[in-house]
Specification:
about 425 residues, six-stranded antiparallel beta sheet, single chain, eight-stranded antiparallel beta sheet, Penicillin V Acylase, Chain A, 10 helices, alpha+beta
């Protein structure tokens, strides 16, 4: 398995328009994997309750925040998502000097969900992930397969005022605060000499391994990566291409601009092949705490052939049934040991419809163009409606309890007409 990963982006004022933070991510995963979009309301728990993550059981907390997640349908965690406090998190696979562990622990995707459920700011989410990393470790297969595909993780975390980059190697980590401009992460280390938080033994460990002499300025990417900082910057990678795409829109980055970045195939950001973009997310977070955030998800592969559909946190929001995959409970092959002895059909209703339409777009040019035009028109109409909410706030919350689900129904209606 060749190392492949995702791309996550954040833009903050002054690089954005309208005093907003724009977060975006493509989740690049095996091409046959289904990604679902699910909502979990806030909950309180009894003392001593346990939590079953993808592979291991951990201590539950007294209260979890409401979250909306885009996740591979076979696991507990998430590739990306947001919570009711407008914290957004996406993770990346990274490979460096330290080997990734096949022993079952928390997946990076578990840490994404745990950070969202347990933190009401970006900085607190960094602290939550770092604490869990030290307590339980990271490891285990990252695909629904016996191939032993493993990796360490980096995270991009944002809220209404700032963003954080958190990069890990085993239990060691470094974090950098981003207070303005734009930032992207891909499947390589990117934190250099600006380190705002770190594992207390991170430098000592690097020195003990002979990666750092203890005298020169400490550069996390150079010390923990195979690549020097210069090689990382000069590599013709998706990281560099993503950085250029943000730079080209600097000062005018909007939700639409971020969607354009995620749809870009020439850069490789919209990935095709055995690893492809299986789900995408764009969030618009006003810096004004009185205004709601709007979180757009595709729940389908290839954002070029998908519609970004809006979700807004309101009380009594309903489950997202059309983008929820079948549940197999204790009979799920992921839960049984040895794991991954079979692969059940995890396709949710929207995925099934989209799969057919994607094939039509691929093989019938004229018909496919009409379908794509219909999809884009619907997306524009929905974004126009969301702009009113972003400017005025939520006036009647009950009208938004089915916002995402009704948007999915409109999408499927476009498919049916086609």
């Amino acid at each position: 398995m060749q190392p492949s990963s995702c791309d996550t982006f954040v833009a903050l004022p002054p690089s954005t328009e309208g005093q907003r933070i724009i977060f975006g991510k493509n989740s690049d995963r095996p091409c046959d994997e289904v990604q679902e979009v699910v909502y979990f309301p806030a909950r309180d728990y009894d003392p001593d309750e346990k939590l079953e993550c993808t592979y291991i059981e951990i201590e539950q907390v007294a209260h979890t925040h409401a979250v909306v997640l885009s996740r591979p349908a076979w696991l507990w965690g998430a590739e990306m998502g947001a919570n009711e406090h407008q914290v957004c998190i996406g993770n990346e696979a990274v490979w460096g000097r330290e080997s990734a562990d096949e022993e079952e622990a928390l997946l990076g995707m578990d840490l994404v969900r745990l950070g969202l459920e347990r933190a009401d700011t970006a900085e607190k989410a960094v602290d939550v992930i770092a604490e869990l990393l030290g307590r339980y470790g990271q490891g285990g297969p990252c695909m629904e397969d016996e191939c032993g595909f493993t990796y360490h993780n980096s995270f991009l975390v944002s809220d209404r005022k700032e963003a954080w980059v958190l990069e890990t190697s085993g239990k060691y980590w470094a974090a950098e605060r981003v207070e303005g401009g734009y930032r992207n992460i891909s499947n390589q280390y990117g934190i250099t000499t600006k380190i705002d938080k770190e594992h207390p033994e991170m430098r000592e460990y690097a020195q003990s391994k002979g990666w750092w002499d203890g005298k020169t300025e400490f550069n996390f990417a150079t010390v923990y990566s195979y690549l020097t900082t210069a090689r990382i910057e000069s590599a013709g990678s998706r990281y560099c291409e993503g950085k250029k795409l943000l730079e080209n829109r600097n000062g005018h980055i909007t939700a639409e601009a971020m969607m354009d970045v995620l749809r870009d195939k020439d850069s490789g950001i919209n990935m095709e092949g055995m690893f492809m973009t299986t789900g995408s997310m764009v969030s618009v977070i006003p810096t004004d705490p009185a205004l709601p955030g709007v979180h757009y998800f595709t729940a389908t592969p290839d954002p070029q052939r998908s519609i970004f559909k809006p979700f807004v946190f309101v009380k009594n929001a309903n489950p997202l049934k059309d983008t929820s995959s079948p549940s197999f409970g204790s009979n799920d092959p992921v839960k049984k040991k040895p794991r991954f002895q079979s692969k059940p059909n995890r396709k949710h209703p929207l995925f099934v419809k989209h799969e057919l339409v994607a094939a039509i777009i691929e093989f019938y040019k004229d018909r496919g163009q009409k379908i794509t035009e219909g999809m884009r028109q619907l997306e524009k109409e929905m974004m126009k409606e969301m702009e009113k909410i972003l400017q005025r706030g939520v006036e009647v919350p009950d009208l938004l309890v089915n916002l995402f689900s009704s948007s999915v129904q409109k999408e499927m209606s476009v498919y049916s007409k086609s």
